[in-house]
Amino acid sequence: MPTICLIPGDGIGPEVTAAARRVIEAAGVSVNWIELPAGAAAAERFGSPLPAQTLEAIARHRIALKGPTATPIGGGHASVNVQLRKHFDLYAAVRPVRSLRGLVTRYDGVDLVVIRENTEGLYSGIEAEIVPGVMQSLKIASRPACERIARFAFDYARARGRRKVSVFHKANIMKLTDGLFLDCARRMRAAVAPEVEYEELIVDNGFMQLVRDPGRFDVLLMENLYGDLVSDLCAGLVGGLGVVPGANIGRDCAIFEAVHGSAPDIAGKGIANPLAVIMSSVMMLNHIGLTAPAERIKAAYNPAIEEGNPAERTRDIGGTATTAQFVEALIKRIA
Ligand code: NAI
Predict the structure, then answer these.
(1) Of all atoms in ligand 1, which is nearest to the CA of residue 240?
(2) Which atom of ligand 1 is nearest to the CA of 79?
(3) What's the CA-to-centroid distance between 245 and ligand 1, angstroms?
(4) What are phi and psi of 153, to 5 degrees?
């Protein structure tokens, strides 16, 4: 029986992670769940948004399914996500973005994977007021971190038969940091996957090309902040944040979570789409070798979406189902 840490998180987090837990169990996986606090609610209850017990349990069990955690804007505690990624050195964020058959969006046939460096860049949040009224934010890029994310991306592309890796950068302006990122990508491609097509796009152009013709992209590789931004943009190409899963992978641990946040505007209303976290659970089951139940879950939600019955979709993707109704219908299909 696998032991999996479960972080319900804030806002819609408890609703969508409870849904994923039920779906995993319905697929025949008995899990020893270890429920752990993190986020804004944990900060109030335990005096820390990331209590020591949470860090200890993840270090021991190495696999976690995480709901979104809220981060205060412009002050307050640092992001739990950033802390977790740094603490466990979860250096690769992997976010597959695919069109779902039957879900009408502006584009068909989108099949991308965003691979985001998860530990450095401007996203490190290393900031200071250097003199009164002047703020500074440091962008960090180190050769080992750039090399390992590039290796990860090209290994991933090879292992999955992907045809192309596109790097988004701003090395025309950030010549040293993004320049290093590019240098590592070029070298790693030559060393690891010379047969994989490779291109470099200045990030602003990359975003424009994505909304114009997402089908021309395959694997996207970029530093932390660009990867954060592009993930939500890509979600918008395939139906929104309710349908894009993610994984944060390190050498020793992996934490699986949807791209979306705590959605305070719909929290507690019972209408959140749990599909993104269910898809993240599928990634997690595959990661720990439980491929058969992972397939069972996919074989339930794909036709459910494809058949287009509004009672089997949540409202964000054009249906009428509540979170609970969606999960009940999905579990019936798995059974
Ligand atoms: P958000 O992703 O929470 O919400 C953006 C919009 O998408 C909202 O209208 C929301 O209702 C909708 N949405 C998101 N997930 C949905 C779902 N599963 N079903 C239906 N609709 C969904 O982004 P926002 O508003 O920028 O951030 C809210 C909070 O979440 C902030 O505190 C932020 O720091 C945190 N956050 C946490 C993340 C994480 O823990 N991985 C990732 C992104 C944001």
Answers:
(1) 7
(2) 34
(3) 13
(4) -65, -45
For residue 140, the one-letter residue type is I
| Among 59, 20, 25, 27, residue whose Cα is nearest residue 36 | 59
Residue ranges lining ligand 1, Cβ < 6 Å: 12, 16, 68-71, 81, 241-242, 257, 260-266, 272-273, 276, 316
Full set of structural domains in the chain with CATH: 1-91+245-335 (3.40.718.10), 106-238 (3.40.718.10)
305-335 pLDDT per residue, tens: 999 999 999 999 999 999 999 999 999 999 8
pLDDT in tens, 7-60: 999 999 999 999 999 999 999 999 999 999 999 999 999 999 999 999 999 999
Of ligand 1's atoms, which has the minimum distance to the CA of residue 275? 18
Please spell the DSSP secondary structure of 154-176, one letter per residue: HHHHHHTT--EEEEEE-TTTSTT
What is the residue type of 257? Answer: E
With beta carbons less than 8 A apart as the criterion, state whether 255 and 281 touch: no
Q: Helix/strand/coil (H, E, C) string of 101-137?
A: CCCCCCCCCCEEEEEEECCCEHHHCCEEEEECCEEEE
Catalytic residue among 66, 91, 123, 301: 123
